[in-house]
Amino acid sequence: MPAPEPADPGMTREWPGASNALGSEPSAYLRQHADNPVHWRPFGDEAFAFAAARDVPVFLSIGYAACHWCHVMAHESFEDQDTADYLNAHFVAIKVDREERPDVDSIYMAATQAISGEGGWPMSVFLTPDGLAFHAGTYFPPTPQPGRPSFRQVLEAVREAWLERRDAVEQNARRLAAGMANAQLASAVFLDRPSESLDTSLLSEAVRLLARSEDPDDGGFGGAPKFPPSAVLEFLIRHAAVPSDTSDAARDMAGRTLAAMARSALCDQLDGGFARYSVTADWSVPHFEKMLYDNAQLLRVYVHWVRLQGDWVLPAGEAASVASRVADWMLDSLGVGDPAIPGGLASSLDADTVVDRVHHEGASYLWTPAGLEAVLGPGDGAAVARLMNVGPSGTVSELGSPLHPGRRLSGVESRLWNRVRPALRAARSARPQPARDDKVVAGWNGLAIAALAEAGAVLDRPELVAAAESLAEYLMRVHWRPATGSETSTPGASKSGTSKPGAGVLIRVSHDGVARGISGLLEDYAFCAEGFLALYAVTGRRRWYGFAEELISGACARFVADGRLSDSVGESAQVFNAQGQHAGLDPFDNAAPSGAAAFAGVLLSYAAYSGSHEHRAMAGSILSLLPPIAGRAPRVAGWLLATAQAAVAGPIEAAISGPPGQKQRELHRALLASPSPGMVVAVQLGMAGENAANDGAPPGSRATEPEVPLLEYRTAAADGSPQVYLCRGMVCDLPLGSVEELVQRLDAMTEAAG
Predict the structure, then answer these.
(1) pLDDT band per the 50, 70, 90 thresholds, residue 502
(2) Which three-class secondary structure string do you get for 223-266?
(3) End-to-end alpha-carbon separation of the chain, Å?
(4) Helix, strand, or coil here: 624?
(5) Collapsing DSSP states into helix, strand and coil, what is residue 321?
(6) Per-residue model confidence as pLDDT tens digits over 320-342
(7) Rounded to an integer, what is the distance from CA 493 to the centroid of its chain?
(8) Residue 703 near residue 679, CB atoms below 8 Å
(9) pTM of the predicted model, to two decimals?
(10) Is the dihedral of CA 600, 602, 603, 604 positive or negative?
């Protein structure tokens, strides 16, 4: 069985005005379905009102542009005229791009899992006209398969139930919505209530629980399909930096997974970049879509591994090389716009490549022994085939196998690979390439800003820091709607979605340099704030810190009501109905950290910069989610665990005072190279010694700008040279003037946090 990506009974006539309405949609995924004979509508009040007027159920199909099985079901069913005729006659069909509307995806994914016991994409959900789910599944084939009915059988069964057992259908739908509401209440976070102190033993226990599900031979956790556990790796690396009885175990688990992924087919050995997941437990057969959110997280994780400064399972030099290639791939393959007006980073590359009008999964990336010999000649071609596990039988399809060594290369092997790689890259670039989804998602670009800024600092690649600043400029220019001073409707929201006075609004998605659609969700605000705080730490430019403050203020105004935190605010009446008319908060990490976990990390960092006890307490309230989750399923609580590790460490607050110059840069680099969990760094003028003019402020206005609180009252040394204050809770030790003293004190403070 293929895995999904994890009325009127006589009515056959078409309704007036019925047609496929996706042609003008900006979403690449929706436009992929614009030529289907199915009369698709975008998600919105109009589509549900149409279903109510016709008194028919809604068929909701959710997917995304890079999804292989979405393409398969589209070809098999949605492009089939007979199937489309039946759908059009008896349902209102709605298409959703899950990347544009994660609020829709989240609640109906929960419903799908509750109904069918599985989840994935394409997601196929049947709804009442007010948005309540009553039947669901994922991929349905065109003909019956063992254990899985055909799509036409599902449609006929749903129609029969709607006509003959309507009361039972609606009662079950209401019962499911009530269950969703109870689940939301069980995971509620109230930010205005005191939280209990964090039990630090929970962190070591989480490491032990993770060890039970680790695959020690192939790396990662669990079996196939196997996904990159980015948030869990961040926790393990942070835990490894603080000496304890489980720090070595955490380090070794992280190293085994990072090494296995880096040397596997999951990692593109030619261009860099990681695929979404592996079909096999040994990472040898990837599912080839490449997502920005995966690569931004993994770039940062590999950089943080480099900061541990060890040559354990994965040498720091190899990790640095992987990180550099991921960063280059992100900018080269996902960058939109042009050099004159740079844009953001696109969402993804497709899993499929279209060759002669036929979709082939991973076709751009597959090789045969004969193909290698045609490019490299018999000698090198045969050697590379052996080195990169390319045999006569393709592991993915008849088109071949992906290149991957599956182990660390020897010196001789590395020299061979480095010599032939340019020729193979050139040959591959001449092939048909996978399509790119050009939509820019605010939150995912926030993840990329943090990763690129830290990679530039740790790998000594200032051009990556410059790229992060370019992304930051784009988000501020295109995705941000500044506060107007009065209450206004949130763009793209229903009447219930509003922004409070004084709060700006972040728009989630832009296409072609224009932001449109719903406002950002909690994860967008949190990921972007995280990115801007990381960018401030690297550059010292106060405008990045100031914008992070605006995002945090906007998130608090938007997602906290009656003291309770939610993931979204009234973007859809139907979603609100489906979750039992309660605001939703999903505490579990998925492909990216949960919005709540990411927001906790941002609040903790902001409190360290600002000295705000209120924001520190809010972070603690969110961390109160941790004990019941981490004690059962730490694999879905990685970012909460990473944030808790930072909270236990302090985090350390580092303030660099004194004039810019070589000594300040050395002190700054030493701080940025430290693996101390969650440490925040403030420097007055950044590594390059920016002045007010190139800090984004008018010349001469610097004196009127408020100082970052962590820097207030920090003075240069008696001789006027720079020095570093290391603090916890705004209580500081004596300042340090040399890199050697600084590193020793950081090590001592980190060890004390164990």
Answers:
(1) low
(2) CCCECCCHHHHHHHHHHHCCCCCCHHHHHHHHHHHHHHHHCCCC
(3) 48
(4) coil
(5) helix
(6) 999 999 999 999 999 997 766 77
(7) 23
(8) no
(9) 0.91
(10) positive
